[in-house]
Every structure is written in structure tokens, then in C-alpha cells.
Here is the input.
Amino acid sequence: MPEIRHSVCALDCPDACGLLVQVEDGRATRLRGNPDHPITRGFLCAKVTKYLDREYSPDRLLYPMKRAGAKGEGKFTRITWDEALDTIANRLRRVAQEWGPEAVLPYSYGGSMGLLNANGMDRRFFHRIGASRLDRTICATAGAAGTMKTQGNRYSIAPEDFVHARLIIAWGANVLATNVHLWPFIVEARRAGAKFIVIDPHRNRTAASADQHLFINPGSDKALALGMMHVIFRDGLEDPDYLSRHASGAAELREFVRDYTPERVAEWTGIDAAAIETLAREYADTQPAVIRLNYGVQRNPNGGTAVQAITMLPVVTGAWRHQGGGMQLSTSQSFTLDRPGLEMAELQKRSPLGREARIVNMSQLGHALTELDAPPVKAMVVYCSNPAAVAPDQPHVLKGLAREDLFTVVLEQFQTDTADFADIVLPSTTFLEHTDLYFAYGHHYLQIARPALPAPGEAKSNVWVFQAVAKRMGIEDAELHMTEDEMIQVLLGSGHQHLDGITIERLDAEHHVRLNLPVPYLPFVNGGFGGPDGKAQLSPDGLAYAPPPESRLGDEKSVYPLELISPKAHDAMNSTFGYLPELDAETAVAWLHASDAAERGISTGDAVRLFNDRGEVLARAEVDGKTAPGVVAVPAVRWPRRSENRAGVNTLIADRLTDLGGGATFYSCLIQVERCADQ
Here is the structure.
């Protein structure tokens, strides 16, 4: 008789789905969405539907290994856990003694969204030994900073309330690929008469399904938001009562946007002035109106202030008054868990440093590995990430990883590009094989997962690994040897009202528990912003728009005439599934506009070379109307090891940072494209 076990999807997605695992004779035979979960509603995305293929893949890493060839060759021999742990402990200890503990660098991000395995025991371990702190900026920090500038907090409307909207704008949000469980709520709203508009430089599946798609030039989103506010204020479409009660700086903003006429903004955005006028009026006149903003908007040098400007729109129009109105970027801040208590930065005081360690920005890893000094990075521990594929400035990242004097440990499930450069590779459990606690950044349900399946081979959880290394290093602090449930108790013990009555026992029994939020949840219906005066901050200081320096209209115009973006692949999850041939084929494509292709003698199916001063990438051309003239799109993120010249799209990307939050600027890149001669 099959047994049904509960789990939670740990992939880096706002949906954080509840899962049902069908198990027969100790082996999973089916994975499906939990029909009782209010957001998952019984279905899964294409990626997770096939996750059992990953779980039982013959390519899973099952045993600890040590390098047996040159760095990058991917040649390893099996070793025991004892040898692996002793080697790691001894090398980290030696690096700390010779260079100082800050010569050790952790590197991780969203390979798992489980709080214990991605943000828990690892942080305690590295704080305790005095390692450099990693500034985890590669995805969301610019948007978070921009939201905070306007709202003073990062609360968002619930996905369930999208059904009440009568205008929905997906701004840089490919919902069908990266947030598919929001889609049924959008469909329900459209059936009730809502209009659905997509603003995106790429005609993805979501844009193709919209009532209207506005192609926008990469990096010009701030200009469009300012242009919309110009029209709204000019035509008296703002909500003066809401502004007077719940916003500061509205008068200054009104004056500031006078210069951002639709005609001027059209030159920057590539959107016709009449379309900008219509968009602004429709947005202000239609209530409820909601913006689903996503992180593509922030991946350029204007990214943080672009989000800041866009988050002003629902304040100016009073959209927050209405159920189904407002904005959603991330719901994560509503999960008022005791993250500081989990991560325990105070353990740095017990480290050999006795103080806070330096911060290294993960978006500039190439610089850190090749140029950072005092001390240089001499050891790196990588988990929940694949920086050789996902980090910008890939040539310098690979150069740094190839250093013989860099001791690198990689915790992984598959032999990635980063693992190819490791000295020690450790086999990691999947989310189906360990305990963890999960928040969400696309809904308001807290979830727990217990092991649904046994770990294969000698795979271990990240929690276990960092505890074991600490023990081998003689670190006996009780905080590094707590059980998983003890750490969950810490997280739940923040004392915040959102968590009242939510216990481990309740999570184990119910599997998903909604935060203590009103129904309906209207976070700013009566103000309640996090600014110093409780109001939204509309001051235009720092909002002046200029095109990104590395763009067709920017100051760094060069011989490279095309703008490159690297949107999410439909069936990918960053680099997680890059070992699959079908995903490799999807990420080995370059979409070009017909006019740009014709100018270069390129047709669909041709092998092409994309290049700039930083390097070159090989791809197959697709000429299908998915981009505007002057824009090339390459889906992210291909494993470099699968390309002919071991170069992924991030070879072409500089490590320039965003204006707020220090984020990566993946969508600010000039290139040239040419047809490969030998075909």
C-alpha cells in the first residue's frame, strides 16, 4: 500500500509549494502538489514534477571525494568522511593561522530555501571561526533596498487577493516561468474582467499570454515609472486624501516628475509616448490595480531606485486602499522569524578575530578571488550555489577558482562547474531527505518538512556537515551542536504577533500554517508604512534618471551595438538543472530580432558567437520576435562545462553593482553577435 508523506519544495521560487510524496517499499514513486495547500492547490511546475528524476539520478554525488587532477578537470577519487572532515578541518585551521580567519570565505545563496541548511548552522560556524562574511547580493538586495526607501518595510499583498484586481501589471515578472502558482489567481481575475499588462524587454510566455505587452529597453524601468507619475500628477489622477494622510514628500515628487514627459521617457524606454499616456491613465483610473514586480527590474545600475520609483505608484494612486490593489515584490518580511537568533552573528566575538569580520560582495567574486588582499582569500566553502556558472565576470571567477593555492570545498548533489574546481567535494542531501523550516516570498504560509526519503549513499545535510567540521576543529560551543528542532524553536521564538500560536507541533500536524495576518490582508489600507513618521517616503532625492552606462543610450557606448539580457529559462531554476540535456539546449540559445539578424546574415538555427571585451559565448540563433530591435536574450544559466569553449552567458557580464543594495547588474551589457564562419 503506498504511503503519502509531506514535504516542501526548497527551490528558489516564491511559491514554496507543499508537496505530497508517494512512497512504496522505501522509494518515491510519485511527487505531486498538495491539494490542501491554498497556493499550491494540487499542481506543480514542470521543474518539480520531474524532481524524482533528479532524486534518483545515476549522476547524484553519493560519497566524499578529493581532487585527483588539475583544477577544473573534474577528476576525483572517493574518500571516507573521516578523511574529508580531517582534511577540511586541518586546512581551514592552517589558513586561519597563516593568513587570519578572514582568509576563509563562505559562498552560498538560494540552492535551498530551507532556513536551517542555507542560513543556519553554516552562519554559526563561519561566525565562530571568524571567516569573512558574504554579502549575499546576487538576486534581491537592490529591490529590497528600493522597497525600503519608499515603504520603510517590505510587506506585500497576498497572492489570493489578485483575484479582486481589475488591472494587473506584471512588471519584469515572467509569472508562468518563475511564479506559476500566482497564475490561477490572475486567470480568475481576468475571467472577472481584469486587464493583464506585461512590461518586459523579452516576449516570454507570460508576455505572449497578456492582453498587452510593452517592450521596454533594459534598465529604463525607473524612467517609465517617473513618466507615469508625470501623467498622473499632471492630469489630477492621484489620490490626494491618501497622499495627505499616508505619504511624505508628495509635493516634491509632483514637481520633480514635471520634467519626465511621455515624449522624453519614450526616447529612453522605447515605448511610444501615447502608450505611456494610456498606461498611466489606465493604472490610475482602474481600481483595484496591482503591480506584480519582480527582480528582473533591478538587474541594472538603476535597479534599486527603479524599484523605489515603481513602489511609489500605488501610494500616489491610493491603490493600497483596495483589496486586490497595491504591489507584490516579496512577502518574505512578513515571516518575522528570529533570523538573528538562528544565525548568531554575536559568535564572531568568540572567534580569533574577536570582532565583526570583513564583508565580501558575492557579486564580485572574481575580484575577491583574484585581487582581494589583506588577507587574500585562501579557502572557500561553497554550498547552495554554483558560482562558476551563476556569478558575473565569469572569466575572473574561473581564474580564481583555478588557483592552486586556493583550498575549495563544495557541498553538492551533482558535479557542477564549481565542483570541478574543488579540492574536496561532499555529497549533499536533497530537500526530500532532511528536516527544514520554510518561509515563502510569494505567499504567507510557514511550512516544515521532515525527511520523506532516506539519503542515498553517504549524502549528508548541510547542518550535519558544519556541525561535524566544527567538532573536528575542536569547537564545542553548544550553539554549534543544537538539534534541528532546537534551531526551529529559536526561529519561532521571535515574539512577533505574526507567529502567535505557531509551534513545531502545529506545523508537524498541519504542514502549512498561515501567518497571523488579517483576512483580507491590506497592509497599507490605513498607512502603517515603516518610515520614521509612519508614512511612505516619496522624496525624489536620488531618483534622477540616466541610461545605464553600459547600454545603447549610455555613456559607455562602444563598438558593441547590442544589449544583452539573460532572463530565466522556462524549465530551469537558475543553474540547478543544468546537467539535463534538454535544459542545456534551452539555455544554449540566443534570441535576436529579425532586423538585427538580417543585418548580420543570421538565420534561426545558425551557430553564432556573442562577444565583447570580456569574452565570447557560443549559441544557436533563434529569430522569432521575442526581443525588440537592439536586444539579444540568452536564457540563464547554462553550465559552462557543457559549452564548446567552457563559457556561459556570465562570461560577458561585468561585476558592476546596482545603485542601491550592491546587487549584480546582469542586464547591463553591450555585445556584438556574428555568425560562426565554419558552418
